[in-house]
């Protein structure tokens, strides 16, 4: 497996969205990004994400052979056994690093980050194994992203505040709408539009948060406009519009995290998330996000 194949398998263009999820979880738990635990968290949760993408291709190899023959395994660029091995190894390494985050620092919260990481890992594997025939798979995918918030928060708080779980639930709603569209990518059109209504919940919360201050309002407006722009590709239904909409919505995760951190009174981190949104769009030009 060369690095080009690894990048495609890991959908590394979406990694900045994992980084903003992690930072949002830290902020919501009352932590600071200058803390020595944050880099370890970023690496651990990035490995969990890439592992999930690897395992997704490994489990979907027969489906991809019929519907997405351009993927690395059907092309013969790498074997399924190699992808399985790399995926589970990265997942185990991610959990090991979360154990270090919990026990390797004086302010550590003990077993909690590793326990949350194990739940995240199990949810990732379950999704990858059983998402094609599972009508509830968008919820499972949303739980994976929500658990990134929760895992990051447990690295800084023995009992994370309720805001972590509320924002995580809103992120889950965003992922439900996104994942529903992604499940039909191979059809090149979305059969039913109603599940996309889940995207309205985080947007409504953003409108409420925008009343607090002008800066949050600006971030909220950017998020709202971007989601509407992304969904416009689903209505056009031209060839390639569904993958483009999915890529845009994936990048929009950074905008959601920016809004969350702006509402939490962390404008500098909100601006960092905006920069990572731009980085995601740039990377998507070189590595397919889906």
Brief description of this entry?
This protein is an all-alpha fold and 290 residues long. Helix content is 73%, strand content 0%.
Give the name of the CATH superfamily: UbiA prenyltransferase
Strand content: under 5%
- Would you tell me which CATH topology applies? Tetracycline Repressor, domain 2
Chain oligomer state = single chain
CATH class value: Mainly Alpha
Low-confidence stretches: none
SSE order, one letter for each helix or strand: HHHHHHHHHHHHH
Cα-to-Cα separation, first versus last residue: 19 Å
What does this structure look like?
The protein has 290 residues and is mainly α. It has one domain (3-284): UbiA prenyltransferase (Tetracycline Repressor, domain 2, Orthogonal Bundle), CATH 1.10.357.140. Helix content is 73%, strand content 0%. The protein has helices at 3-10, 15-28, 37-59, 61-67, 72-75, 80-103, 112-129, 137-154, 162-183, 200-209, 214-236, 241-263, 267-284. Helix 8 runs antiparallel to helix 9 (162-183), helix 10 (200-209) packs antiparallel against helix 11 (214-236) and helix 11 (214-236) packs antiparallel against helix 12 (241-263). It is globular and about 50 Å long. 51% of the residues are buried.
Features:
mainly alpha; 13 helices; 73% helix
Protein topology:
Elements: H1 3-10, H2 15-28, H3 37-59, H4 61-67, H5 72-75, H6 80-103, H7 112-129, H8 137-154, H9 162-183, H10 200-209, H11 214-236, H12 241-263, H13 267-284
Helix pairs in contact: 2-3, 2-8, 2-12, 2-13, 3-6, 3-7, 6-7, 7-8, 8-9, 9-10, 9-12, 10-11, 11-12, 12-13
């Amino acid at each position: 497996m060369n690095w080009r194949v690894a990048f495609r398998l890991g959908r590394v263009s979406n990694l900045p969205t994992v980084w903003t999820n992690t930072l949002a979880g830290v902020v919501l738990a009352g932590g600071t990004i200058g803390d020595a635990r944050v880099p370890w968290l970023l690496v651990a949760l990035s490995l969990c994400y890439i592992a999930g993408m690897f395992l997704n291709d490994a489990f979907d190899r027969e489906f991809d052979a019929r519907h997405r023959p351009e993927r690395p395994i059907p092309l013969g660029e790498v074997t399924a056994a190699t992808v399985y091995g790399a995926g589970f190894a990265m997942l185990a390494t991610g959990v090991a690093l979360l154990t270090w985050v919990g026990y390797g620092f004086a302010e550590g919260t003990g077993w909690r980050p590793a326990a949350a990481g194990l739940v995240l890992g199990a949810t990732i594997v379950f999704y990858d194994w059983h998402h094609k025939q599972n009508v509830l798979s968008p919820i499972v995918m949303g739980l994976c992203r929500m658990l990134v918030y929760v895992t990051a928060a447990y690295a800084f708080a023995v009992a994370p505040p309720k805001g972590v779980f509320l924002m995580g639930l809103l992120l889950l709603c965003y992922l439900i709408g996104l994942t529903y569209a992604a499940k039909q990518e191979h059809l090149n059109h979305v059969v039913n539009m109603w599940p996309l209504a889940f995207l309205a919940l985080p947007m409504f919360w953003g409108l409420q948060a925008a009343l607090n201050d002008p800066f949050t309002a600006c971030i909220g407006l950017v998020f709202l406009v971007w989601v509407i722009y992304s969904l416009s590709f689903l209505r056009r239904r031209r060839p390639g519009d569904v993958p483009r909409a999915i890529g845009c919505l994936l990048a929009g995760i950074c905008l959601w995290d920016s809004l969350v951190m702006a509402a939490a009174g962390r404008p500098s981190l909100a601006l960092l998330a905006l920069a990572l949104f731009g980085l995601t769009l740039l990377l998507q030009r070189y590595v397919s996000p889906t």
